[in-house]
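Quick one, tokens below. Sequence please?
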């Protein structure tokens, strides 16, 4: 009976009781303490409950994957359901499950290493500048294979089940993908990575993130994968390509970005010129894919034995303030062709003192390929001189003087055929003089070429000589013979006529002299004789 009365009383109370629930959306405050206040004014009853939003350690739930030799971050945050919590004044302890000593210990706003495991000394740190935002992540440098395992981040002051959390570190014994150039025309890039634990997928991407068609080969040795992927690339805006290697089983993705570098490429063979002429020192700004626009680059030409520059280009113009005076007004770049990578130097009115090594320098490249050199050889010689030394048959002579190196002389006809010729050479004070004679026949164009080649300096000089058509006519040759004979006859006749007169003119003074002497001898001086007639 009593039991039924109690149940009836309870049902009555449930019927008459008024139940209230209040919900609130809270924002971060200074202390993160919220108060729920319930007030019954009729009976002057007020009740309060204070609730402090608890902080907790939250670490990344997914394993962190790294590669031996690299740096890694084990992400952890001190936060509550409302926001992150300032951890600057907290004690933060990082532990590894299989070690007795701590991995890292932070308190009083500093690191303490007295009880730190020796294998981690000098390799761990926290992000102190970010701790005010709740960042209590651990940075581990130069990761080792033995670093793999479970790590716990512990904040003792929380004094709750949420004062610690764990994160797993997986360490692979592999390096980053290695990218190299294995082909030039067209350009082929190869991506290679060794020692993969899990079967990989290799993907190539261009500068815009587009996937490129590529070929992949893989081998497996002692349970480790080696993979190579090759791709043929074309010129892009930035010329940067990415090799991505993904091991899905451990959620590990590795990338290597390869920027096709630009470099200065000058002519490897010496450039040979003659004093007084103009010369071009060829250089190009290019990468393995294509030439590179050099319009906005700084280009500096230097000569190894000079302190001041030979030519200086910047801001799309030439600057002569620091230019060597001997080159002023004689140097220029091909500005219209610089957009195609042409950074060659044109040097006018070449002097003997211009000979030497020149360097083209592009500072912005900031690599060993930012400069290259070209050698200029200057010879003090003239072009071969061709003259006619015989008419029947026609004989041409080629002569050139002052050659530095021993030459080869070749005669060619209008069609480029080599003609048999005789050559003589002399050497005086280390300089060669060479003469080459050739007997030529009439051809279609009657143009003959004397070619002088100095192989040691890769210098070839040519003179083209055209024989007029009229010189080949028979009447012309006969006329020449007639006039030659006429000159000879006239000479003989002149000698016969003038010889007696010349002889007389020579002997006449002698006869006059002899006659004068005889006259002087026959003359007798007069003697006056006085006779005395007085007797």
């Amino acid at each position: 009976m009593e039991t039924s009365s109690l149940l009836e009383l309870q049902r009555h109370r449930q019927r008459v009781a008024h139940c209230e629930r209040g919900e609130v959306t809270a924002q971060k405050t200074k202390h993160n303490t919220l108060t729920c206040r319930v007030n019954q004014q009729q009976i002057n009853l007020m009740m309060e409950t204070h609730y402090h939003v608890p902080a907790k350690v939250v670490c990344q739930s997914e394993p962190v994957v790294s590669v031996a030799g690299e740096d890694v971050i084990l992400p952890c945050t001190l936060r509550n359901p409302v926001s992150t919590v300032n951890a600057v004044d907290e004690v933060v302890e990082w532990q590894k499950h299989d070690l007795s000593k701590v991995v890292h210990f932070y308190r009083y706003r500093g690191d303490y290493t007295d009880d730190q495991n020796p294998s981690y000394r000098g390799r761990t740190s926290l992000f102190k500048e970010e701790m005010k935002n709740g960042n209590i992540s651990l940075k581990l440098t130069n990761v080792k294979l033995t670093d793999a395992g479970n790590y716990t981040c512990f904040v003792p002051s929380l004094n709750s089940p949420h004062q610690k959390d764990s994160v797993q570190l997986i360490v692979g014994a592999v390096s980053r993908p290695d990218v190299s150039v294995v082909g030039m025309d067209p350009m082929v890039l190869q991506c290679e990575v060794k020692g993969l634990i899990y079967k990989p997928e290799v993907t190539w991407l261009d500068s815009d993130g587009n996937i490129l068609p590529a070929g992949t080969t893989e081998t497996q040795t002692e349970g480790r994968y080696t993979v190579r992927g090759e791709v043929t690339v074309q010129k892009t805006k930035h010329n940067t390509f990415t090799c991505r290697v993904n091991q899905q089983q451990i959620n590990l993705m590795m990338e290597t970005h390869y920027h096709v570098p630009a470099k200065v490429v000058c002519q490897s063979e010496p450039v040979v010129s003659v004093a007084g002429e103009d010369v071009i020192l060829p250089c190009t700004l290019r990468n393995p894919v294509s030439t590179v626009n050099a319009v906005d680059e700084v280009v500096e030409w230097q000569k190894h034995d000079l302190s001041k520059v030979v030519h200086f280009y910047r801001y799309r113009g030439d600057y002569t303030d620091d230019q060597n005076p001997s080159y002023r007004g004689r140097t220029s770049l091909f500005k219209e062709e610089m957009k195609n990578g042409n950074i060659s130097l044109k040097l006018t009115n070449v002097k003997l003192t211009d000979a030497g090594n020149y360097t083209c320098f592009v500072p912005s490249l900031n690599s060993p390929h930012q400069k290259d050199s070209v050698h200029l050889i200057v010879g003090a010689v003239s072009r071969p001189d061709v003259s006619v030394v015989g008419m029947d048959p026609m004989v041409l002579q080629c002569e050139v003087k002052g050659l530095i190196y021993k030459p080869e002389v070749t005669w060619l006809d209008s069609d480029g055929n080599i003609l048999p010729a005789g050559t003589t050479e002399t050497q005086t004070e280390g300089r060669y003089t060479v003469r080459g004679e050739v007997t030529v026949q009439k051809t279609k164009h009657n143009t003959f070429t004397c070619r002088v080649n100095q192989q040691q300096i890769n210098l070839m000089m040519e003179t083209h000589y055209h024989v007029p058509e009229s010189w080949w006519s028979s009447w012309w040759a006969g006329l020449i013979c007639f006039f030659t004979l006429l000159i000879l006859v006239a000479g003989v006749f002149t000698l016969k006529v003038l010889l007696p007169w010349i002889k007389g003119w020579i002997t006449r003074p002698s006869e006059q002299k002899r006659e004068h002497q005889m006259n002087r001898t026959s003359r007798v001086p007069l003697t006056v004789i006085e006779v005395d007639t007085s007797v």
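The first strand starts at residue 33 and ends at 40. Residues 474-522 form the longest helix (49 residues).
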